[in-house]
Design a protein that fits this description.
single chain
């Protein structure tokens, strides 16, 4: 029971402060991994891969995954609902306030201030994903820590997604190709 309450608290906190979408939950998940040991850094990398390739919001998928790994179905429900609840509450409050104050210069300035902060949070999360995906944990030096196969796969898929004729291909095809290559090479 105590672990469910801890899941509830941690994911409510994550939902409250992870502004900017699912990838903004990564610093919170990393902190949970270090503090509680519910999952490993490798599990976190797998969560990102699974959450990116399954339908639905990334943050919600990762909350469900962590909750399930920790306490099964009750944990999955607790983590998911706890992550979503702050957003629901805030959206209801903001919707009510926006009816009344949408033309206020203070409100307009607040939104202008939040844009760069959200961009920074997403960039930090993106850096965390790159670090997990392209570097081996616990390597002695920078160059020995690089997972060269992952770097090559990353560069090839990045270049392919920029080719004009290939931009018409659905992103799921690129995710599937990456998954197949990862399985074939034991990544």
């Amino acid at each position: 029971m105590m672990e469910l309450l801890t899941l509830c608290f941690e994911f409510f906190k994550t939902g409250l402060f992870a502004v900017g979408g699912g990838l903004a939950t990564l610093p919170f998940l990393t902190q949970m991994q270090q503090k509680y040991g519910w999952f490993t850094a490798e599990d976190l990398a797998n969560m990102i891969a699974v959450s990116e390739s399954t339908p639905g919001p990334i943050g919600v998928n990762m909350a469900t995954y962590v909750g399930y790994m920790t306490k099964g179905i009750p944990g999955a429900l607790t983590a998911t609902l706890s992550l979503v609840l702050p957003s629901l509450i805030i959206v209801l409050i903001v919707a009510k306030a926006m009816d009344k104050y949408q033309n206020s210069p203070l409100v307009q300035n607040m939104f202008a201030f939040m844009r760069p902060a959200v961009t920074g949070l997403i960039a930090a999360a993106g850096f965390s994903v790159l670090k997990i995906a392209l570097f081996k944990a616990g390597a002695a030096t920078f160059f020995t820590g690089i997972d060269w196969l992952a770097v090559v796969l990353f560069i090839v898929l990045l270049v392919l997604t920029q080719v004009k004729k290939l931009k018409k291909i659905h992103p799921i095809a690129f995710i599937a190709v990456g998954a197949v290559i990862g399985i074939l090479f034991g990544m």
